Amino acid sequence: MAMRWADDVEPRISRATSHQLSAWGWLLLRSSAAAIRDNRPGEADDTIRLARTAAVAMGRDLTPDEDFLRTFGPITVAMKRVENAMIEDRPDKVLQLSQTIPVTDLRPTSNNRNRHLLDVAEAHRRMHRHSEAFDILQGVRRDAPEWMTNQRYARDILKGIIGRRRTLSSEMRDLADFVRLDY
After folding, report:
1. CA–CA gap between residue 177 and residue 121 (Å, rounded)
2. Torsion of CA 125, 128, 132, 137, to 10 degrees
3. pTM for this structure?
4. Same-domain pairing of 30 and 71
5. Are residues 113 and 183 in the same domain?
6. How many domains are contained in the chain?
7. Are both 30 and 105 inside the same structural domain?
8. Are residues 141 and 75 in the same domain?
9. What is the domain extent for residue 128?
10. Nearest partner of 175 among 147, 143, 142, judged by Cα
11. Residue 62 three-state SS
């Protein structure tokens, strides 16, 4: 459905406003997310490439005054490419793509930013880089504690980090308690 809507509202890039490009881009990102989850990687790549076209035409990430959750632009598209790589179970690609994303330029309250950081933490965990994964979780906790306590994904990542350890550091126990993880 998102793809059909994206086709219907596709703007003429040379004349489109930032709002039009953002709306079209978000529909393409939704289409890409649906395609990757439905094991259609070619379609996911095509739609995210079109979303990147809209983002590049905008020049930078823009946030509507009325809704900070609808931020769209090159950084948002890059984070969604990382998410697609995580869904494809490509932690190596997640880590490679994430190196160029300036997450410090984004608001700590951004769901896109926080979700992206969890994907990077999970990629580190899958690559057996547990200390890097744990550090990222601690950073998300520091920046967005209210958000993190409601994320099952954060609990699952932490469970994977501490699952095979015989003893936990006080920092690990503290974070496990914070995200309400039974250990």
Report:
1. 18
2. 20
3. 0.88
4. yes
5. yes
6. 2
7. no
8. no
9. 94-183
10. 142
11. strand
Q: What are phi and psi of 54, to 5 degrees?
A: -65, -40
Of 88, 115, 131, the residue that ends a domain is 88
Rounded CA separation 126/132 (Å): 11
- Gap between the Cα atoms of 76 and 54, Å rounded: 11
For residue 73, the one-letter residue type is G
Render pLDDT for 41-60 as a digit per residue (tens, 0 to 9): 999 999 999 999 999 999 98
CA distance linking residue 47 with residue 28, whole number of Å = 5
Rounded to 5 degrees, what are φ and ψ at 62?
-120, 145
- Cα separation, 10 vs 131, in Å, equals 44
Contact 103, 65 (CB under 8 A): no
Q: Are 77 and 11 contained in the same domain?
A: yes
Q: Which of 88, 116, 151 is the last residue of a domain?
A: 88
What's the pLDDT tens digit per position in 129-168? 999 999 999 999 999 999 999 999 999 999 999 997 889 9
Do 151 and 118 meet the contact criterion of CB atoms below 8 Å apart? Answer: yes
| Number of other residues whose CB lies within 10 A of the CB of residue 139 | 15
The answer to whether 55 touches 74, Cβ cutoff 8 Å, is yes
Closest Cα partner for 23 from 65, 49, 62? 62
- Asked if 49 and 73 sit in the same domain, the reply is yes
